[in-house]
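Q: Can someone sanity-check these two? First one:
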Amino acid sequence: MTVHTSWRRRATLSTVALACCASALAGLPAGASAAPSSSPVSSAAAATFTDDFNGAAGSAVDGSKWQIETGDNVNNHERQYYTSGNKNAALDGQGNLVITARKENPENYQCWYGKCEYTSSRLNTSGKFTQTYGHVEARMKVPKGQGMWPAFWMLGADIGNVGWPQSGEIDVMENVGFEPGTVHGTLHGPGYSGSGGIGAGYTLPGGEAFSDKFHTFAVDWSPNKVTWSVDGNVYQTRTPADLGGKQWVFDKPFFLILNLAVGGYWPGDPDGNTSFPQQLVVDYVHVTTNN
């Protein structure tokens, strides 16, 4: 696939404008499934952010915890328009948040390429919740199909002052539709952003796909170390030693992001075999402290 070194997300927020990146992971190792090992979460850890998405079917997310971003994204060449409210992100009444990507444009939204072809949603906790270090976890069922790009990730809270990639980015989980059985975890920072991000992939055994059922994606984050796991199976750990002398920018507050993109440089655009609507179903997002 074509590798671009300046893949960045762009969206307009109701209270803050961010220029944020997405992982461009071409060339990173796909990573065979690691042997099962326990995710290093202490029983004494204290919960700092909990959203189990309980509420009436069709209701919007809790506005005290999340804000909804709106707009398109020229920098990644994504095809969707992120809508407001509960149009593309709503509770299902069964304890899940459902982010839905649709092939539609009922409001005549305009994107970087002309009239938008798709709608979806992107949420973040900027200005509402940030944390330095801890265990960050989400249980999710991802969509399927060419062009789908769900992600659970974090950005440095100082992005408005220092910009990206100086802010740092921790991608807890990204999946692209042409790799149904693989997810990626990545660090981005100054000198190792975009396709130069530091990370690896985790692949399910036996040809399973992540869209088949729910899986738990997590990072354990401490000074000078980030460790990724899927369903409790640790598959990579990164420290400043992995950066080749470049700056480690992960010892400060970060906020959370959930989104479902459609198309873009990395996943490629949907094709005739991609069905819509597609859904990213999120059972919960939990953050705890380290012990």
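And here is the second, same format, sequence then tokens:
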Amino acid sequence: MIGPLQIVLLSIVAAFTVVCGQNWFQTANQPVFTGMMAGIIMGDPVTGLFIGGSMQLTVLGIGTFGGSSHIDANSGAILATAFSVALGMDPSQALAAIAVPVAAILTTADVLGRFCNAFFQQRIDSLIEKDDYAGIERNFLYGAIPWALSRILPVALALIFGQGVVQSLMEVLNGPLKWLGTGLGVAGAVMPAVGFAILLRYLPTKQHFNYLILGFVVTVFFSYLFTNVKKIGTAVASTVDGFSGAFINLPMLGIALVGLFLAVNHYKSITGTTSIKAVPAQTTADTEEDDDDEL
């Protein structure tokens, strides 16, 4: 079960992430961060990273413009991680059954946070006319209160009163409706691919499909190579005494660096930063004209 201290800490994380999202630094306002923090609080950072990372990939291609509201993937990752660890729920199942629905429902909380924050904005407008700079600063900081409450209240209430509901839901999904629970688990595992598909929908893949093909081939080739090398190393280590060679899987950082190289190379090619413009040689007439001007 989720303890009182864990409920308090998880609610604070939910408030902290949404307040960070209103500033120019938004590192903490990401599902992978909130999932990791929720996992640490619940004592299982691996599950938190899995759910947070999967939620991050799910919303990878979702963006908002201006002041429009968006789904609350952070709170969804927190609740899914908490219930998954506390109740022993399958992480993929929790992702589909809890994280995504909660993220969609709490869009209303985002709207309410913006609506309540308008009160402090109007006060700031009146204080500007009075040149009350101290009051402007205070009301600016007061604006963080409705943002924090818009996440603290729903997350805390869900953690306090939702454990029994989620427990009953998990028993049904693993009992009479096991086929539905299995389907939700598969859907949760596929959701990151949906996020990639949405992202590719907005990227200029038709103009640069060659990079897409190259990235796919490089990933498959390296994965196949590293996997087989690791199998060979494991077999050798099991038969040869004193063999201390370490064989690891392909790190995703390596694939990311290959992609970074291709992106930088393409950027330089289209901006012409790699080309050196030749300086036209001055003709005799230009030289004489310059000399005349100096005289």
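A (reply): Looked at the second one. The chain has 13 helices and no strands. The CA atoms of residues 74 and 288 lie 71 Å apart.
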